[in-house]
Amino acid sequence: MSELMQRETRAFLATCPKGLEELLADELRTLGAEVDRTTVAGVHFHADLAGAYRACLWSRLANRIVLCLLREEGVEAPEELHRAVGGVDWPRHLRPDATLAVDFHGRSEQIRHTRFGAQTVKDGVVDALQARGLPRPGVDLQNPDLRLYAHLHRGRFTLGLDLSGESLHRRGYRRDVGHAPLKENLAAALLIRAGWPQRLRDGAPLVDPLCGAGTLLIEAALMAADMAPNLNRIRFGFHGWAQHDEALWAELKREAEARASIGRKRCRNRLYGFDQSPPALAAAKSNAMRAGIPALVDFQGASLGQLQRPEGLEVDARGLIVTNPPYGERLGELPELVTLYRDLGEGVRRAFPGWRLAVFTANPDLGHRIGVRADKQYSLKNGPLEARLLLMDVPLEQEGQGGTEAAAVGSAPRSEGAQMFANRLEKNRKRLKKWLKQSGETCYRLYDADMPEYALAVDVYDGRIHVQEYAPPRSVNPAQAQKRLFDALQVIPEVLEVDPGQVVIKRREKQSGKAQYRKQAATGERFQVREGRARLWVNLRDYLDTGLFLDHRPVRRMLGQMAEGKRFLNLFCYTAAATVQAALGTESAAGATDSVSVDLSNTYLEWARDNFALNGLDPARHRVVRDDCLRWLETAGAEFDLIFLDPPTFSNSKKMEGTLDVQRDHERLVSLAMARLAPEGTLVFSNNQRRFQLAPGLADRFDVSDISSRTFDPDFARRPDIHHVFLIRHRERT
Question: How is 570-608 classified by DSSP, letter by letter?
Answer without folding.
Answer: EES-TT-HHHHHHHH--SSS---SEEEEEES-HHHHHHH
